[in-house]
Amino acid sequence: LPVDQWITPATTRGEARRLVADAFAAARLDTPALDARVLLCKALDIAAIDLATEPDVAIGPAAAALADMVARRLRREPVARICGRQEFWGLPFTLSAATLVPRPDTETLVEAALKAMRDEGRAGSRLRILDLGTGSGCILIALLSELPAATGVGIDLSPEAARMARDNAAMNGVGERASFLVGDWAAAVKAPFDLIVSNPPYIGTGDIEALAPDVKLYDPRLALDGGPDGLAAYWRVGAEAWRLLRPGGHLFVEVGAGQAGDVGRLFAQHGLEDWVAIRDLAGIERVIHATHRHD
Ligand code: GLN
């Protein structure tokens, strides 16, 4: 049955919650009850607690919006995209079709970079940070939110992503310390940087087809496609890091499962030494940290 025939203004919150969760479960979504709750709260503009405490209220005119959101989710559009928002590092981010949905895995990179700055006693210094392929801006903005004297540049090939990142920086109170440029990697910026970060596209072109539909159909291809072997972007990032890091400066990149050794060795070929892999919360080597050698 089309969604707008079983979600009507007379449907109560409680009924809608159950019907939507059942439809999502039947469609084999991973977290049907959670998705139902989040979309209901978004469509009705209520808090989760209101859904729990007042389930007998009819959903009224929000029915149309809810039916539309449920139909989108049934086509595998991620909840974050439907809501236009995703939290990362405890901060809110607005999304667009031109940006990857921020992933919890990527917080591993933020944590590792911050730890390195603290270990060097430089967390309060006027660090210069460069984020290559900034997307929503989530990595740079999270870092600036924790490093009060730092400034940063985020670069993206997509003008829409750069715009989105700028809005996100302003929304999170770091807009004065961040600038966002459209560009082909770092062609337009000048050395030196203390810290370079990147979550580049790293899926092998031939592996994109096998990704979950939520990713394959909705994350921008530009943010996923890492060329035939998935490593194309790391050559560019390594070359830019060698050119732009100050001696002793740090590079942190996210990598796909199984890519850590290849990426570490590739960076070593660019003169970026002492690389180490850092594991994410699932135990997968997710981040490579390399240092620009002193000489
Ligand atoms: N982490 C994303 C995924 O698993 C890929 C992001 C990327 O290529 N940087 O689909």
From TrEMBL:
Does this UniProt record's set of keywords contain Nucleotide-binding?
no
| InterPro entries assigned to the protein according to its UniProt record, in alphabetical order | DNA_methylase_N6_adenine_CS, HemK-like, Methyltranfer_dom, N5-glutamine_MTase, PrmC_N, RF_methyltr_PrmC, SAM-dependent_MTases_sf
- Looking at the keywords, is DNA repair present? no
- Residue ranges of every copy of the Release factor glutamine methyltransferase N-terminal domain listed in the record: 15-84
UniProt GO molecular function: nucleic acid binding; peptide chain release factor N(5)-glutamine methyltransferase activity
- Protein EC: 2.1.1.297
Question: What keywords tag this UniProt record?
Answer: Methyltransferase, S-adenosyl-L-methionine, Transferase
Q: Name one GO biological process term.
A: methylation
Q: Which residues bind S-adenosyl-L-methionine?
A: G133, T134, G135, S136, G137, D156, W185, N199
What are the residue boundaries of the Methyltransferase domain, all occurrences included? 125-254
- What family classification does the UniProt entry report for this protein? Belongs to the protein N5-glutamine methyltransferase family. PrmC subfamily.
Protein's job: Methylates the class 1 translation termination release factors RF1/PrfA and RF2/PrfB on the glutamine residue of the universally conserved GGQ motif.
Question: What is the protein named?
Answer: Release factor glutamine methyltransferase
